[in-house]
Amino acid sequence: MHQKADIPQIDYWYYIENIIKEVLQTYGYREIRTPAFEHTELFVRGIGETTDIVNKEMFTFQDRKGRSLTLRPEGTAPVVRAFLEHNMSRENPLAKLFYLGNMFRCEKPQAGRYRQFNQFGLEAIGSQSPLIDAEIIQASLEIYKKIGLADLKLIINSVGCRKCRPKYLKALKDYFRDRKELLCSDCRERYDKNPLRILDCKKKQCQKEVKNSPTIFDYLCEDCKNHFRKLREYLDSLEITYQVNPLLVRGLDYYTKTAFEIISGELGSQNAIGGGGRYDYLVEELGGKYTPSVGFAAGIERIVSTMEKQAVRIPSWEGIKVFVATVSSEDNSSALKIVKQIRENGVSAEMDFLDKSIKAQMRLANKLNVSYVLIVGQEELKEQKVTIKNMSNGQQEKVAISKILPYIKTSQEE
RNA sequence: GUGGGCGUAGCUCAGUCAGGUUAGAGCCCUGGAUUGUGGCUCCAGUGGUCAUGGGUUCAAAUCCCAUCGCUCACCCCA
What we know:
This protein has 2 domains: 7-164 and 220-309, BirA Bifunctional Protein, domain 2 (2-Layer Sandwich); 322-406, Anticodon-binding domain (Rossmann fold, 3-Layer(aba) Sandwich), CATH 3.40.50.800. It has 16 helices and 16 strands. The chain has helices spanning 10-27, 40-47, 52-56, 76-85, 88-91, 130-147, 165-177, 185-193, 204-211, 222-237, 282-285, 300-309, 332-344, 358-368, 378-381, 404-412; strands at residues 30-31, 37-39, 59-62, 68-71, 95-104, 116-125, 152-158, 243-244, 256-264, 272-278, 293-299, 322-326, 349-351, 372-376, 385-390, 396-400. The strands form 3 sheets. Strands 1-5-6-11-10-9-7-8 form an 8-stranded mixed beta sheet, with helices on both faces. A 5-stranded mixed beta sheet has the order 13-12-14-15-16, with helices on both faces.
């Protein structure tokens, strides 16, 4: 299974994860870690039976007792499950949680899309206020900004609620009824199952028909209209620029009211770097009481790939500071002790474990790009000393073993 | 799920179209250039079931089929 977290990229991952944790800490979100798999039913009910994720993208298997389990394709449903299972609403009427972990979708991999990938996401469970929608958007944008990504676009929309969406769906169906034959085969199916999805079909023939279709904004109820208006007001006051796109429909059924997506021009075909929205009925759907909520999720691989395209600079591994070389194998235990002493004082140190000659050890030290090589030999040990060689200027001198650390540390500050 | 491209050493690749001696290069790695010392240079060396399985042939990395994997696009999404 392809996993884009191997050694050459690990510095990116550390960097991103640290920023996520730091930023979300300041927003009051607590990390939650849920299992990599759940009962299949959770996703079917949560994400929706008509979605692509549930229909064709889940890694589903049976355990020994015949129960159907599924590797999580997304993070929100598991978080809500945990929220309910632990009765978090009793602790706090508004649960602010974030997660960071791998997700699985059974599809053909391609650029920016992997069967196992990583997302971070945040969920605010328990508030119906558009204020929290704005906070979630703000938090996610701040993370991108701290990471150093530029030129990201925020697109927002409202997809209505239980009250007004059915009216809109009916209007859509009325509109497309006579034009069904002009749509692609997928959209003809969507017409019956989930007409909203026709809106973001990328086929030219469908877009042509979508152009004059009824817009959701004519059908939103007062509550949804106000919510959207307030959200825009809050975003404006935060000086967040955005585009309203009434055709933005997300792939998960649970969204209500606010839906948003953040895209990066650099990514090509898979351009969504993150997305989210409000899911007012999900908690209820999963067996809790009505608990309006909003969340966001982003793909780490896509962040890394955008960082690479934008040449974002990150701190990298500092490497090893000191190499302790031995003249012969009889010096090994002394060297081992010296290495230990250096490491205990917080300085990174390495030695040879392959019985290399001193020449080979010097080469290794050079390859490791260390600042100092300490040479341990009988000649030095007789006087309780080691030879310290400064690898940048080649100079060396004998130093008492007890003075090694002060020597290294003071020279380091120069 | 649909359709392209690819799979030869740790890495980047040549060799495949026109089958034919022990499958090559660069980088990396290891060792050496007098005996306790790096970088540059020079010399030498290690390393490959040519993705896997089957077929055609006197002969297959090379042709054919299947499988697996990777990759790109579509769908959709992160």
